[in-house]
Amino acid sequence: MTKPGFITLFASLLLGLTSGVAxxxxxxxxxxxxxxxxxxxxxxxxxxxAYQQKDYQQALGLFQQAAIDGNTYAMISLGSLYSQGLGVSxxxxxxxxxxxxxxxxxxxxxxxxxxxxYENGLGVKHDYKTAFSWYQKAAVAGNPTAMNNLANxxxxxxxxxxxxxxxxxxxxxxxxxxxxDAKYYTDVVNESLNAPLHNATENAASAKDVQVFNVCAxxxxxxxxxxxxxLGVLYVSGRGVSQDYQKAFGWWYKAAMANDADAMFNVxxxxxxxxxxxxxxxxxxxxxxxxxxxxxxxxxxYLKAAAQQ
Length: 309
Prior knowledge:
The protein is an all-alpha fold.
């Protein structure tokens, strides 16, 4: 599964809105009890060979047999096939069921995949609290990707209370465990921690805001679209930097031009309210529609509400 990046909070920051996501129940699981090693399961090994040869239907059948034997690697492989639509019709719900099976048997990679599903609404309604819970379990179990994902939720206050200290801690752990994305952030955080503050009276909370801003500024300059999004949020909220809607627009526009749906919605909202740019509701509508087409749920909800007025 693709790792989720930072999720923008522009609507709540600017308009005081909540995301309105419903609390989703865990996906139903199939009764698999016995766990076997991937290395000693012939069907799993044959499935890998078929997958490498791009015979996805053959791989699907072999992974299913291995999964019935309780092989968690095969369950995750099945989830991947269903989520990508390889050898079978794409079905995020079935993918989630297989990830959930493996997660319930204690596989950290599967726990992270379940978290990704809940965070992104793949096969289930968006539920950041449940995503946070699964990322936390996977991170504690040693999964580097989950550590980075957990840090992102802490940084954005999604599914938990916003806590930059915890975000930094988990980014550092993820980077130490080999997560490449997390290393972007920890490198710059370490630099900012070792540098003297310009204002000696600056409190701890604002110092953490500055650290996060510095982290994102470095990553955005390196082309990280998720960091561009978060820079926009920081400029709008005035955390770690002086509030500046024009700069927020600039970073969100760059991310939007990279086909980021969250940024498209944020650009639309700035046009809608005339913040950082001249008010232009025609352009606002175009950007919000584009965001909805790219899957942004806030944009879909906004358009639905506007149509009912």
